[in-house]
Every structure is written in C-alpha cells, then in structure tokens.
Amino acid sequence: MDDEIIKERISAIENSIKFYSSSNKPERERWVVARFLENMNVPHDSTDIETPTEDPPDVVALGGTFEVKEILDPGRRRHQEYKDALNAAKNATTSKELLTEATPRDSSIKEIYELCKNSIKKLETKYPLEVRESLDILFYVNLQGVMDIMEHPYPDVTELRSSGWRSISFVEGDIACCFYVKAEAPHWLQRRAGTVHHKKW
Rounded to two decimals, what is the model's pTM? Predict the structure, then answer.
C-alpha cells in the first residue's frame, strides 16, 4: 500500500512540474482561461480557446484577448518547492514521510484586489498604453493554504480606470471576478463585471 501511495505522489509531483514548465506555457494559459470561463459560468467548449500566432495576447476566447499572469505568495520559489517535494517522495519508504505541515488561512476579495493592483503597476513599463488598451489581463491567483475567500466588503476599484487595460480579472480556485471592464470588451464580460462568480457544479 505504501509503495502505491508513494508512486502516486511522485507521479503527481512530476505532473505538476510538467504543468508549470516553460514549454507548457501555452497549454497552461489556455487552462487558466478555461477555468475563468467555467467559474464565470460562460458556455464554451475547447475550440473557443486558442493560442494566437502573435503574442500578445496569450489566449483568445469568445472575443476576449487575454494576457495571463500568475500571482504567487511573495518570495515563493515554486520550482525549488517541487524539486524538494520530488526528492522527498523518491526517498520516502513509508507514506507517513509524505505528510507535510499545512497552514490554512482565509483570504479576501480586498487582498486579491490589492495583489492584482500591485501587479498591474509593475507591468506598466512592459506593456505600452496602446497595447494595454486592446488586452484583457487575467490573473491566476495561486496562493498557498487559502481555504476560503471573504467576498465582502467589495473593494473600490476606481483606481483601475487609469490603468489602460481593456479589462482586469482574476481566477482563484472555483471563483472568478472581473474588477474592471471597458465598453470595448466582450459583452459577456461586461455583464459579469463587479461581482464574484462561483463555478456551478
């Protein structure tokens, strides 16, 4: 039994390493957009989500031109994290050795907004205004230990109006939200802006 559990753990870590590899970037970006559409409860299928020949955007889907960015915990070194986990799993002799300490916590829509806002500021020099005006930036929020997200109070997003992006959204777990959207963005995104949406199972 222990051998099977260890093998499954090794396989899961190796799959994660492959998923987050640079060579898998286009597939990962399409996955993020697919998760965003699912959480927003927007009908679609896989053929609606494509990687264009020119970058930016990273992904086009249902009229959206998505530039996908990931938000991690400050100082997190994911590559080393998975490397250490893989070494530990390969050296394990019992399933108990695979157990790790977890520190669950709650987050909030305000915290996520602040993280997205700070990331936007850092991207201003990378994306000229004329480029931002045609892009829908989508943040994949990947924070460790988050068990629940408090949705109230909803943040004041007025500051985003001067950011230049066509729309600003995030996806985290089974929720998604568009903080800000311009009239040029797809209608389905405009209709869903300003509200936290949950994937309907």
Answer: 0.88
